[in-house]
Amino acid sequence: MEKVTVNASTSYEIFIDKGILDSAGDLISQVIKKGKALVVTDDNADRFYGGRVMKSLSDAGIEAMKFVFPHGEASKNHSTLLNIYEFMAVNGYTRSDFIVALGGGVVGDTAGYAAATYMRGIDFVQIPTTVVSQADSSVGGKTAVNINGGKNLVGLFHQPRLVICDTDTLDTLTPEFFSDGMAEVVKHGMIKSAELFDILSNKDIKENIVDIMKRNVTIKGQVVENDEREKGERMLLNFGHTLAHALEKYYNFTGLTHGCAVAIGMSTFTHIAERRGMCKAGVADKLDALLEKCGLPLTDNAPLHELYTLSLRDKKHLANGMNIVICSDIGQSEVVKMSVEEYAEFLKS
Length: 349
Prior knowledge:
By secondary structure, the protein is α/β, with parallel strands linked by helices. The protein contains 13 helices and 12 strands. Strand 7 and strand 8 form a beta hairpin.
């Protein structure tokens, strides 16, 4: 079993291997010594893994209940959050208890925010079951829900006590959903690791999935250690996301998935950066080739002027401009500050 330690404001371990889901209770009991658990999950993850995780908790002597909500980005809202609070209050959950987030990024973000705010903060454990949640969103303590004005605009930083990544759970994903998650994996290679990018480009991804996930959480963990509150280096993790969040909002979070939107954002910004001399020649083509290998799109027909307006609502829009992540080469990235006017000219390129 692979293990990565994250030394943020709360230090915690990330365990990665095939077939460790049934050991979740034992792993949790070694970290959290008291309290009962609430397993928060969606109907998809519950169908495959809910029973196994509940049994694992019971076998480890941990009392647990389960809260299930409908899968999908549309559930990542205050209505779901309030329902979790009410369920916990009615069933007597206290500050000594904890939440187990079982599922993808929507589950992790929502359950994590519930843990960060219920009784002003309780412990939680991440058991991510999708590519994007294992590689990215389960690590780093970002929790949030969406509002009508935009994605992830309301949230808190709240680090988990433990992350358990069973890569066998990825076998139940549809090819489209697996591909969607790979956008964040490619992102980590682009911003921080030419070696990871090379593995993804030249090796069988599923045959090397444990190593790939370890490399991803190591990158994410190191960035979080250096900049937990996203004041500097952690902004690099937003590569591709400025345009992606605008695309998702344009389609009202339906039709175009997050990973597809991130892929389009990465490709678009890298081609523009090349044309403007901000990126080494040929990088955009290499990125496009890997995105296509992963089954991800490169372009979209949404009107650019509308995406510009929507991207100004993103949390990366500051009072004096925008923070844009540019990769000057594979594995090399920087945050470029632009005025709103400069950003408009950048997109027009």
